[in-house]
Write a structure and sequence with these properties.
Helix content: 10-25%
Radius of gyration: 19 Å
Structural class: alpha+beta
Distance between the termini: 45 Å
Number of strands: 15
Strand content: 15-25%
Length: about 325
């Protein structure tokens, strides 16, 4: 099995393997339906300062104007994704058979569908090698977030995870929605407050309270769970921002519609930017990646600090993990 190290950590993927046969089978089942705005929040358009000078790929700070749009109040849940699968028969990338032609020399019995799962280490480790805490788990997918013995029963209100960009886009199409642009996502996350260290302000713990689901303690060996959640939390577990949006920080990473380039902000248009025409990551040239936003329950100041406002994540197009989900937007009629 092949692991691809990503900017947000590590995800398991087939690299450039496409699982085309399965994709062709499932994509024909996806039909767009008339969407509505139930469970969505109207975000009026406006101008804002986008980016974060702390991170090279989030520079420079620049002014952006976005039109108004509807946005899901929270991340897409297991229950919502289950309705999509029931209606369409859709098979996620993590559930699809692997093509032996993409893995020459690997025994066929080892080519088992699965996804990346975070595992706490037994002791403190050097943080330079994410393979110490990320494991490719055969049978891990949205129905079985921690592996084949796990289940989403009783977790219907948790964000769906192990979702690739393709999976997220398929759901959005079916729902009559789309994935947010990176600019729309950041504008919504700021909640009208402007550019700050965190989307909620300057203090990590306002009034001594955790206001987002991130990692506390020693990463990756000891999570003190001060915020009450060792993994993903049910949507709406933390206060909404001024726009009425939940979990724009932490919980699970969220896919955007923009391809990823670290230099894009130097050339971004000011009006409704939609990202570059192609993807390029100097860390992994040739691997197509899309932008991810918001951080996850594994972000902390010890390791992944990209839950901070204006920072960017990235993910290979077919990758998934148990800290990766999405939410959708919809244009005004």
């Amino acid at each position: 099995m092949i692991f691809v190290i990503l900017g947000t950590g590590i995800s398991c993927t087939t690299g450039n393997a496409s699982r085309e046969t399965a994709k062709e089978t499932t994509s024909t089942l996806v039909r767009a339906v008339t969407g509505d705005t139930t469970g969505m929040v109207w975000i009026g358009g406006g101008s804002f300062t986008m980016g974060n000078d702390e991170f090279p790929d989030s520079r420079p700070l620049h002014q952006v104007q976005v039109d108004g749009f509807w946005m899901d109040a929270h991340e897409v849940t297991n229950a919502e994704f289950a309705r999509f699968v029931e209606a369409t028969g859709y098979l996620t990338v993590a559930e699809r058979p692997l093509n032996p032609a993409d893995f020459p020399g690997v025994p066929a019995d080892k080519l088992v569908p699965g996804s990346a799962v975070f595992t706490t280490t037994a002791q403190k480790v050097n943080l330079s090698n994410p393979l110490q805490w990320w494991t490719y788990v055969p049978g891990a997918n949205w129905r079985h977030p921690e592996g084949p013995q796990s289940s989403i029963e009783g977790k219907e209100n948790l964000p769906v995870v192990h979702i690739s960009h393709e999976d997220a886009a398929a759901y959005a199409k079916w729902a009559g929605k789309r994935l947010p642009t990176e600019a729309e996502w950041e504008y919504a996350a700021q909640g009208g407050r402007g550019n700050h260290t965190y989307y909620w302000g300057e203090e990590l713990k306002p009034k001594g309270q955790w206001v987002a689901n991130i990692y506390q303690g020693s990463f990756p060996d000891r999570n003190t769970v001060e915020d009450g959640h060792a993994g993903a939390a049910p949507v709406g577990s933390y206060p909404a921002n001024p726009y009425g949006l939940y979990d724009m920080d932490g919980n699970v990473w969220e896919w955007c519609s923009d391809l990823y380039r670290p230099d894009y902000y130097m050339n971004s248009v000011k009006q409704n930017p939609t990202g570059p025409a192609d993807s390029y990551d100097p860390e992994e040239p040739g691997v197509v990646k899309y932008v991810q936003r918001g951080g996850s329950f594994l972000c902390s100041d010890e390791y992944c600090i990209r839950y901070k406002a204006g920072s960017r994540g990235k993910g290979e197009v077919s990758s998934g993990s148990n800290n990766l989900g999405f939410r959708c937007v919809r244009d005004k009629d």
